[in-house]
Amino acid sequence: MGVSQLDPRIGGAPAAPHRPPASAGDQPGGGEGYKRRGAHPRSRSPSEETALEPMDTSYPREDPRAPTPRKADGNAHTALTLGAPRPPPRDHLIWSVFSALYLNLCCLGFLALAYSIKARDQKVAGDLEAARRLGSKAKCYNILATMWALVPPVLLLVLLVTGALHLSRLAKGSAAFFSTKFDDADYD
């Protein structure tokens, strides 16, 4: 096969033999056999109507005049069945870093950080269900770390305040006892 017979458009494959233009009955939908170069058929100008080239029929194409699915009112439509869109899974990474640095009682903050990183990895990998599950575990460990780190100091503060109030009441009652002056006759 000579070089002149190779078609450069398709990487050296043999060129399709030249065919005469097809008649209107040869193509599906009664095609014209020639197509205009460049513009859409509806945007023809009189000068472009004369610039015709043979239509490339070397591979099957969709017929542009094929019927499209239509609704009852006559408009074309595309139907996609999707479930309710779910928000992307949360990994709580910032909260976990804060818990690991400041609220890391019993290493709960570190566990939260580990699960947050795993959730982010699964989210990037595209496994959204695993990311949701791991994000939920990270959230639980963050809540536990926060509770373990914040509740005991608050409880201690409440106990100190109530203890101080109770001691002040006792001090008022005992101050009267210590301020009492006894007569010498009371010691006999």
In short:
The protein has 188 residues and is mainly α. It has helices at residues 93-102, 108-125, 128-178, and strands at 34-36, 52-54.
Features:
single chain, 188 residues, mainly alpha, two-stranded antiparallel ribbon, 3 helices, 2 strands, 42% helix, 3% strand
Report on this model:
It is a single chain. This protein is mostly helical. It has helices spanning 93-102, 108-125, 128-178; strands at residues 34-36, 52-54. It has a two-stranded antiparallel ribbon. The model has no long low-confidence stretch (mean pLDDT 74).
* Low-confidence segments: none
Strand order of the largest sheet: 1-2
Give the tally of β-strands. Answer: 2
Amount of beta strand: under 5%
Structural class: mainly alpha
Question: Measured on Cα atoms, how large is the radius of gyration?
Answer: 43 Å
Shape: rod-shaped
Q: Report the biggest beta sheet as strand number plus sense, adding barrel if it closes.
A: 2 strands, antiparallel
Helix content: 40-55%
> What is the count of DSSP helices, taking H or I runs of 4+ residues?
3
- Report the span from N to C terminus: 143 Å
Order of helices and strands: EEHHH
Quaternary structure annotation? single chain
The residue-averaged pLDDT reads 74
Fold blueprint:
Elements: E1 34-36, E2 52-54, H1 93-102, H2 108-125, H3 128-178
Antiparallel strand pairs: 1-2
Helix pairs in contact: 1-2, 1-3, 2-3
